[in-house]
């Protein structure tokens, strides 16, 4: 054992049935994680000691469950046995820490209590607070409490504590059984862009602005699902966050790396920072149960967009004046929105100046133009996006799925991928 005070390794006597814990683990890891490790080792002692002793009869070199094995058939048998022991210990430890009956009872109590206190209408509104309370009471990590809740039938816990793109995604839920464990509504911005680029079905579905990429989901653009706050930023509504299968697209997850299938469910549920890496693929077979009146709203909106598009000509001045009038904005309003002076905007509107690519893209975003109109405006302004340039691909991405947001939100989204637009 390493003696930190004397900076050297020393030999000590450790009595049977003793678990040695590195005290630094209480600093580097949370208490729930340390406790899980201790119980894990207790399971090995109680359940696997005799198996270990039996294996030692034909392999004298082994010193623990994660043992060195000899070659040949015996090695395969030994490896298989130790893997089974490890799987059993991993499964039993959280069940010992969080016994089903009391854990379910406490969870139900906290859900009812917290919903009553804040006047919540949906379980997902309080689920993260419930998980935090359970993690404290049972002295486990938040992820352990989350996974245990899902195992016990609290499916809304799946949409909690998902860390993606440097932030936690707001909690969300969906109808029971709507998607499988290896499917998700939540993906990174980079995966979203890549899937739009390589998947024709997703590209076709999102190219006309029907879906916006908000809170790491592709969400159907309708007032029941998307709202605007007092500062103009877009968010999912409470209804959308509790009915994800009604308004969002689904993606399949495939775990990268050599991880046993025994642990796949745990991996899919643990989406903390740096936990696991997934291959993400758009699922064409999933059909969102979008309400008909919301589809009708979007259809009416699209009809207006088509009518405006049909009025646009190849004259940049005519297009700019038409679109400013449609959006009820002045030259000054647009200039403020995209951080350009009023004179610059006026010269572009009057056809006296050809804007730079960046300014043209910003004009489209500042006017919140849907893809069908922004593409025509760029053509009229004499500006081209070149697909072979990665920066241009990202510009196209925000014009397709972030067009309805304030300019600063689109800029912040691009900045996450080191793309500057100003």
What does this structure look like?
It is a single chain. By secondary structure, the protein is mostly helical. The chain has three domains: 12-97, no CATH class; 100-282, no CATH class; 312-415, 434 Repressor (Amino-terminal Domain). The chain is 52% helix and 9% strand. The longest helix is centred in the first third of the chain and has 26 residues, at 31-56.
List keywords for this structure.
two-stranded antiparallel ribbon, 11 strands, 434 Repressor (Amino-terminal Domain), single chain, 422 residues, 52% helix, 9% strand, 3 domains
**Which regions contain 5 or more consecutive residues with pLDDT less than 50?**
67-77
Structural class: mainly alpha
The total number of structural domains is 3
Main sheet attributes: strand count, strand direction, barrel closure: 3 strands, antiparallel
Number of strands: 11
**Sheet with the most strands: spatial strand order:** 5-10-11
Return the average pLDDT rounded to an integer: 88
Strand residue percentage? 5-15%
How many helices? The count is 19
- DSSP helix fraction: 40-55%
Radius of gyration: 28 Å
Shape: elongated
How far apart lie the N and C ends?
Answer: 58 Å
